[in-house]
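Quick one:
INPUT:
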């Protein structure tokens, strides 16, 4: 667990969320040769090229060789075997046998020259690598407190052998001097630097940062310059403030004595100018003295130096404290330490206020120095450049560290990080103790050193070794060191999390059983065994669509191996930091981002039910990398894995949280996470009872990250998962709405090439979404869909096409949504199935949606849009049987896409399949298309309807007779009888309307069998007399029985105006005018016209008018007789002869009745006489003109002689 820099030290220890983790390097090191001693401690550790070197407090150097793991066994780990136990030689001054010795203090490896420098009990000896054979004879360096000072800028040369020719320069911290030595084929002293009591040194090129027991300083080893820096303890006032930061000249030369003395000038390394810092630039910095100092001669070595000696003479005990006696030293115990002889020897401690100097170099231009006030007080890390100027904000340690190392940074190419790590974050690791509620814990405090000091980045992490989490188990500080060699390692945890494993949504053991379980139940109710069997067969057929060939044997084993190898490649890491405590050594390895984030998830979801604060923490984890672009394959997979796992955790919390309700924003954020993470939606659906049966799992299975798989399976196997609830109706509305949005978002990914198992995924998505929408739409009111409603989404789903077509059919049938089913068929252009489904709805089968309003009309309109003539015929006949008027429109359609039907064929089909529709089709042919050839048949249909009604219904006969009575009772002017029938026709009386059409056809200029019709009408005489008077009149007129027609019109019907019109038309018709604009039918479909359909002559009209006059004169009602006679003579007097009229008019009639007729007749006679006179005169004049023209032409031509 990370702790903020401002948090108190009682924070809990890190649970794996920190930037580093400890991995075992060597457990239970055999420090004692016979295993009987427990007081031996590890002082120092080094590692290079599979060789591990351990220095102990027993002055013993252990050399182990690493045996690589078995490549065939992925779970095996490297093992170490003991190569040698070495006790380095050291000089023991007289009288010091009772003083506790530190043992092996340092191991300095120089791989470029194949040498190792071992500091044991303040004596340096030299060995070869890697077997640690003594070199340089009996050469030793006595009274040495530190060996190091190799150029960190040339660290890379040590590994590639570039420093072998010139050797490696090191620094030896002697009592009064710092000895500069070149190590190659021998140990050759170069120069000495006048700096007494140094205990540590780090070097960058020619600049070394050193420290004695009280203060830090920068040394320029080539030009013998020094800049005093701050004191180690801020309470130590021995260092004058006015000399800090001031460059000073120091001198040093080689002594005349010593075996490796050189008379030549010091062989200094090339001078390297340090970069100028734009801030904190001092005029007296070391860099300003380089030029001036270079002009002066190098000082020769003086006689007070400590030479490299071949003799083993022990040095005199120094009065100053030894490095091993310092508080916090690597080898100094906190209490009396048992010496080699086995008895306790008191150890001299530092005076109060003296702290161990700590120096590291995070960059080639900087050193990090630690100061403080006391061992239990906080420490301050200060950064200085090669000129001694501060470079960046300080860092704070909760307690003064025992040891520190730095790792990483933009220039540290050997940091302990994953092999494909995208970042160069720099960390400083400090070994210290920290107070916890149960006592002091010893561990590592880890923090960034390359931050800018902002509040957001002041985060510290605490790391403890495994199984040392109590005061009893962690009685000592941790040693830590950056090793010369690096080790390739890997994280099996990454493999466990990122390796894709097969996810089995169902708990059945065999694939066949699993396959069956996918389709065994309907989403709402258990289906019958017959349907289950059919669906299983269908499923098995569909699941094999992914590959026609059967999968090879052991394919899953091969797939697992491939996935594991891929994940293992990403799990690689390098280690260079060693941490030790007791008998155990660990690698301190960069904790990959995936494990850090996953540990945060584990800490967050530790509680059984996530509280709102826990959910916010999960969102915060995602927000931590939301705007961050993945810079490596591992990081890309990390982001994907964390998103998927967080999505699963949030979803399972949502599903089982009854009390902790999700807010709308949280729920939508969860949906977005699940969609963006590209987690296979089949995994999400498998967690939700009711829709999990829609998951399609083929033989290849569902493969997801192992960490996500374990999280999902944990929920499925838990008590909160309702295995028995497999119906959609059991799901709450929030869950259904969540699924609606989630699955809709996933459908938008159709066509993306990056979706694995795309076919199965989208078949599952479509089936589940359809089931959800059907369940939600059950509560909608019947009728068409409204905008942005569930029904609108349902229509859009099926209209755009679904991949799970067969499953969709089953679902729609089970929910009784036939209209939606028809839309599904329409999306596949399955015209026959669309019509069959609509037919089921129209015939009354259950359709809960009620969307198909006016179904018969919809069928009729749909038939005009299809091109399959057979379907049009089939459903046209079906519709004609149900609704004859509508059905015949299908066959009568002119704008349909199907080929047009032959009228004769249609008539024959209708006679056989839909007899009731024949009449309506004939009406269309006759009245709509002008096919007069069908007039006679249509008249027969009309007549059958009318006659049948009149025969069977006394009420109908009574109505007909009453119309005659009512019409006769009307006062003039009155409409024609046919208009009277039209105006009083009931809307739903088919016989009445058929009679009107019958009158229209009978009165038209069509050729029909009038004798047959008359006989049929006459058959009604057995029932009642004169029931069909207008029809009898029309037939009498066609048969030239005009007197009979006029008699019926005048005496039986009382339709005087129609009688007059009859005469005027010459008896052609009584209710139809001349049909001048009749529709022209195709040739062969027109019947021949009657000859009398042409306009009558005046003689014909006159004859009819005389007959009508006789009928008027025979009217029983005198007033009607006088009135109608007078009107007829007055209006149509021109068709009467005066003499005939006078003979017909009764003598007792007043002249006034026919006065108008007589006046017009006399006037007409006078007009005719005058016209005759004028015509005769015109004829005489014309005769004279013609004779004149003849004479003129004769004269013009002259005489002609004929021979």
């Amino acid at each position: 667990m990370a702790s903020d820099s401002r948090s108190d030290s009682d924070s809990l220890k890190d649970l794996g969320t920190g930037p580093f983790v400890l991995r075992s390097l060597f457990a239970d090191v055999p420090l004692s040769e016979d295993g009987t001693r427990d007081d031996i401690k590890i002082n120092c550790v080094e590692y290079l090229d599979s060789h591990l070197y351990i220095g102990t407090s027993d002055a013993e150097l252990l050399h182990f060789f690493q045996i690589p793991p078995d490549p065939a066994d992925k779970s095996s780990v490297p093992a170490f075997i003991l190569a040698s136990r070495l006790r380095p030689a050291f000089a023991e001054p007289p009288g010091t046998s009772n003083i506790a010795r530190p043992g092996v203090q340092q191991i300095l490896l120089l791989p470029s020259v194949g040498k190792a420098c071992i500091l044991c009990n303040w004596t340096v000896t030299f060995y070869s690598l890697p077997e640690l054979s003594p070199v340089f004879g009996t050469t030793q360096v006595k009274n040495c407190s530190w060996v190091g000072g190799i150029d960190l800028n040339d660290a890379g040369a040590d590994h590639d052998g570039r420093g072998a020719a010139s050797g490696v320069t090191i620094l030896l911290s002697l009592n009064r001097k710092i000895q500069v030595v070149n190590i190659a084929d021998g140990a050759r002293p170069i120069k000495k630097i006048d700096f007494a009591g140094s205990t540590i040194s780090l070097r960058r090129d020619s600049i070394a940062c050193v420290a004695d027991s009280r203060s830090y300083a920068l040394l320029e080893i080539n030009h013998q310059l020094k800049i005093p820096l701050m004191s180690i303890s801020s309470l130590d006032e021995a260092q004058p403030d006015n000399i800090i930061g001031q460059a000073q000249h120091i001198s040093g030369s080689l002594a005349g004595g010593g075996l490796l003395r050189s008379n030549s000038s010091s062989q200094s390394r090339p001078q390297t100018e340090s970069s100028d810092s734009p801030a904190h630039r001092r005029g007296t910095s070391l860099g300003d003295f380089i030029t001036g100092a270079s002009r002066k001669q190098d000082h020769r070595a003086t006689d007070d130096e400590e030479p490299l000696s071949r003799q083993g003479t022990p040095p005199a005990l120094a009065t100053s404290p030894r490095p091993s006696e310092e508080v916090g030293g690597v080898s100094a115990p906190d209490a009396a330490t048992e010496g080699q002889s086995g008895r306790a020897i008191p150890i001299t401690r530092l005076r109060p206020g003296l702290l161990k100097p700590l120096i590291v170099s995070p960059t080639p231009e900087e050193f990090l120095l630690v100061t403080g006030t006391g061992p239990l007080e906080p420490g301050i890390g200060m950064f200085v450049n090669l000129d001694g100027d501060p470079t960046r904000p300080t860092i704070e340690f909760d307690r003064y560290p025992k040891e520190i190392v730095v790792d990483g940074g933009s220039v540290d190419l050997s940091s302990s990080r994953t092999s494909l790590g995208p970042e160069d974050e720099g960390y400083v690791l400090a070994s210290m103790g920290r107070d916890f509620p149960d006592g002091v814990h010893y561990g590592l405090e880890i923090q960034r050193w390359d931050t800018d000091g902002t509040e957001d980045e002041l985060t510290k992490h605490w790391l403890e070794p495994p199984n040392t989490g109590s005061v009893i188990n962690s009685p000592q500080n941790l040693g830590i060191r950056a090793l010369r060699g690096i080790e390739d390692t890997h994280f099996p945890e990454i493999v466990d999390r990122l390796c894709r494993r097969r996810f089995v949504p169902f708990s059945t053991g065999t694939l066949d059983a699993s396959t069956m379980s996918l389709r065994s139940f309907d989403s709402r109710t258990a289906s019958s065994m017959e349907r289950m069997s059919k669906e299983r067969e269908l499923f098995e057929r569909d699941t094999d669509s992914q590959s026609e060939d059967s999968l090879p044997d052991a394919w899953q084993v091969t797939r697992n191996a491939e996935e594991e190898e891929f994940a293992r490649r990403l799990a690689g890491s390098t280690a260079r930091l060693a941490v030790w405590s007791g008998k155990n050594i660990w690698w301190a390895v960069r904790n990959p981002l995936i494990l850090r984030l996953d540990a945060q998830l584990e800490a967050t979801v530790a509680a059984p039910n996530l509280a709102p604060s826990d959910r916010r923490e999960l969102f915060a984890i995602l927000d931590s990398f939301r705007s961050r672009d993945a810079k490596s394959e591992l990081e890309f997979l990390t982001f994907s894995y964390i998103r998927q796992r967080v999505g699963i955790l949030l979803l399972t919390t949502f599903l089982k949280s009854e009390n902790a309700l999700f807010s709308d924003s949280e729920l939508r954020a969860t949906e977005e996470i699940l969609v963006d993470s590209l987690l296979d939606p089949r995994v999400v659906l498998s967690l939700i009872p009711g829709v999990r049966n829609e998951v399609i799992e083929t033989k290849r299975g569902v493969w997801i990250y192992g960490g996500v798989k374990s999280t999902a399976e944990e929920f499925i196997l838990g008590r909160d998962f309702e295995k028995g609830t497999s119906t959609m109706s059991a799901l709450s509305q929030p869950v259904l709405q969540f699924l609606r949005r989630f699955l809709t978002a996933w459908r938008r990914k159709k066509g993306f090439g990056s979706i694995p198992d795309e076919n199965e995924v989208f078949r599952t998505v479509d089936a589940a979404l359809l089931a959800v929408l059907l369940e939600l739409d059950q509560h909608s009111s019947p009728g068409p869909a409204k905008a942005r409603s569930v029904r609108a989404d349902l229509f859009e789903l099926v209209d755009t096409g679904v991949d799970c077509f067969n499953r969709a059919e089953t679902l729609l049938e089970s929910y009784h949504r036939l209209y939606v089913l028809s839309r599904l068929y329409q999306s596949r252009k399955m015209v026959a199935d669309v019509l069959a489904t609509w037919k089921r709805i129209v015939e009354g089968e259950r359709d809960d949606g009620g969307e198909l309003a006016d179904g018969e009309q919809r069928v009729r309109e749909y038939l005009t849009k299809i091109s399959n003539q057979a379907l049009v015929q089939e459903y046209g006949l079906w519709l004609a049987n149900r609704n004859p008027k509508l059905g015949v429109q299908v066959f009568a359609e002119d704008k349909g896409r199907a080929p047009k039907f032959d009228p004769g064929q249609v008539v024959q089909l209708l006679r056989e399949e839909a007899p009731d529709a024949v009449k309506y089709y004939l009406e269309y042919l006759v009245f709509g298309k002008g096919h007069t050839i069908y007039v006679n048949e249509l008249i027969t249909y009309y007549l059958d309807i009318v006659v049948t009604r009149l025969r069977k219904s006394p009420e109908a006969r009574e109505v007909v007779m009453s119309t005659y009575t009512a019409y006769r009772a009307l006062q003039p002017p009155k409409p024609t009888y046919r208009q009277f029938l039209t105006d009083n026709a009931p809307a739903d009386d088919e016989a009445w309307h058929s009679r009107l059409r019958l009158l229209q056809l009978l009165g038209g200029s069509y050729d029909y069998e009038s004798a047959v019709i008359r006989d049929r009408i006459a058959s009604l005489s057995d029932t009642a007399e004169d029931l069909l008077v207008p029809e009898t009149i029309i037939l009498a007129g066609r048969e030239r029985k005009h007197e009979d027609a006029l008699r019926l019109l005048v005496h039986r019907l009382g339709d005087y105006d129609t009688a007059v019109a009859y005469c005027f038309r010459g008896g052609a018709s009584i209710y139809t005018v001349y049909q001048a604009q009749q529709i022209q039918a195709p040739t062969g479909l027109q019947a021949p016209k009657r000859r009398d359909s042409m306009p009558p002559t005046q003689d014909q009209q006159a004859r009819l008018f005389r007959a009508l006059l006789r009928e008027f004169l025979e009217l029983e009602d005198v007033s009607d007789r006088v009135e109608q006679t007078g009107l007829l003579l007055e209006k149509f007097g021109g068709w009467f002869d005066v003499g005939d009229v006078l003979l017909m008019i009764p003598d007792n009639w007043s002249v006034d009745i026919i006065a108008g007729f007589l006046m017009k007749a006399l006037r007409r006679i006078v007009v005719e006489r005058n016209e005759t006179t004028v015509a005769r005169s015109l004829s005489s004049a014309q005769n004279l003109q013609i004779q004149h023209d003849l004479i003129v032409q004769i004269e013009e031509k002259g005489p002609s002689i004929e021979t």
